[in-house]
């Protein structure tokens, strides 16, 4: 069991690593002032991290508080350790070996048969693909699972859209790879990644909404992912927005994701455009911009229903920033203008004036970065 002295040393270590992650290279004196640590303590902590190869020091002109004079900065060696991030989607898995700032260095993916391939087989394939990516500096593996996870972050409790229930990820991956594994809800992981590593300007609270096969949401408050109740999920996609609407995979009807997720958009685009679409939201928006009144009506309906769900989230959670990802990553900017206008008309006045709606910033590998961010928080920055 760690002694009180060891606990304090670990705390100081975590503080320094987080400060370098969040604020970049800094002179020791600036780090000490930022963290309210003594110069002696800072010397000990930096010395330990140098010995482990986790940080480096070098002279940079004009760095630190003495402008214009060379100053020795401490910087995080982001390549010193790696984690593997895994995003599990509807019929696809994407993996990436990531550095200490969750940046993917090498990425691979594979498809699986939802109908014919049991989840246990998919987990074995994840282990095989991860082993091919792993190196000798691997800290662990994070999994962004499509649904609620257990309190210990070991299992995917339920995935409505995949038809999975109680799927163990952590145990088989740890046995196969010999490193720790941690599992989290996929969209909450993406929200954490945006808060840690995205271009969000430090907005807090931050609500991330991901539209693909379903409509998921993740919330970060005070820099920490929000986990309420036993499973900690924010099921925005299962708010009822249509009375007597379409049946949902969750067993209810009229849920937001039945009228806002990609399968519905693809169905409407196919009916209106006479062809299959790889990016139905963009294709519908472009058709509407070109004067297609039917496409404009579908887009207006989508925005109306999405804004109804977002207004509920704003009124309950009061986020400073809403990021829209997934299908919205490539949507034209006028679509965001429509969402902003519709949200303004629905949210509580004081709250609607304070919230921004923007495009998610992390790109197509958001799920990989998110799962890596979860692993880094658990296994490195909070270890």
UniProtKB/TrEMBL annotation:
Domain annotation HTH marR-type: ranges: 16-55
Superkingdom: Bacteria
PANTHER family reported for this sequence: BIFUNCTIONAL UDP-N-ACETYLGLUCOSAMINE 2-EPIMERASE_N-ACETYLMANNOSAMINE KINASE, ROK (REPRESSOR, ORF, KINASE) FAMILY
Family note: Belongs to the ROK (NagC/XylR) family.
Protein name: ROK family transcriptional regulator
Highest classification ranks of the organism: Bacteria, Bacillati, Actinomycetota, Actinomycetes, Streptosporangiales
């Amino acid at each position: 069991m760690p002694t009180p002295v060891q606990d304090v040393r670990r705390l100081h270590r975590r503080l320094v690593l987080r400060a370098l992650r969040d604020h970049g290279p800094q002179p020791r004196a600036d780090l000490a002032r930022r963290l309210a640590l003594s110069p002696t303590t800072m010397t000990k902590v930096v010395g330990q991290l140098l010995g482990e190869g986790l940080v480096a020091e070098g002279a940079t002109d004009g760095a630190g508080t003495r402008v214009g004079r060379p100053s020795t900065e401490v910087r995080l060696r982001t390549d010193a350790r790696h984690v593997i991030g895994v995003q599990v989607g509807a019929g696809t898995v994407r993996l990436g070996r990531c550095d200490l700032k969750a940046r993917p260095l090498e990425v691979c993916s594979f498809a699986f048969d939802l109908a014919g391939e049991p989840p246990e087989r998919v987990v074995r394939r994840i282990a095989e693909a991860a082993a091919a990516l792993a190196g000798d500096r691997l800290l662990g593996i994070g999994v962004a699972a499509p649904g609620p996870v257990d309190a210990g972050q070991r299992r995917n409790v339920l995935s409505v859209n995949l038809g999975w229930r109680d799927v163990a990820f952590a145990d088989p991956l740890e046995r196969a790879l010999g490193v720790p594994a941690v599992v989290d809800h996929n969209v909450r992981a993406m929200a954490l990644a945006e808060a840690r590593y995205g271009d969000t300007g430090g907005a807090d609270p931050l609500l991330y909404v991901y539209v693909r096969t379903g409509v998921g949401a993740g919330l970060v408050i005070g820099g920490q992912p929000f986990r309420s109740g036993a499973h900690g999920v924010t099921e925005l996609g299962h708010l009822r927005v249509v009375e007597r609407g379409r049946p949902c995979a969750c067993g209810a009807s009229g849920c937001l994701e039945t009228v806002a997720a990609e399968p519905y958009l693809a169905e409407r685009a196919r009916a209106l455009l006479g062809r299959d679409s790889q990016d139905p939201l963009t294709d519908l928006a472009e058709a509407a911009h070109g004067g297609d009144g039917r496409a404009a009506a579908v887009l207006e309906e989508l925005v109306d229903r999405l804004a109804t769900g977002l207004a509920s989230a704003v009124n309950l959670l009061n986020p400073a920033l809403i990021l829209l990802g997934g299908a919205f990553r490539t949507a034209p900017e006028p679509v965001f203008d429509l969402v902003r206008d519709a949200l303004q008309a629905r949210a509580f006045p004081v709250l609607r004036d304070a919230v921004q709606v923007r495009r998610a910033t992390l790109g197509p590998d958001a799920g990989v970065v998110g799962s890596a961010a979860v692993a880094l928080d658990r296994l490195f920055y909070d270890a």
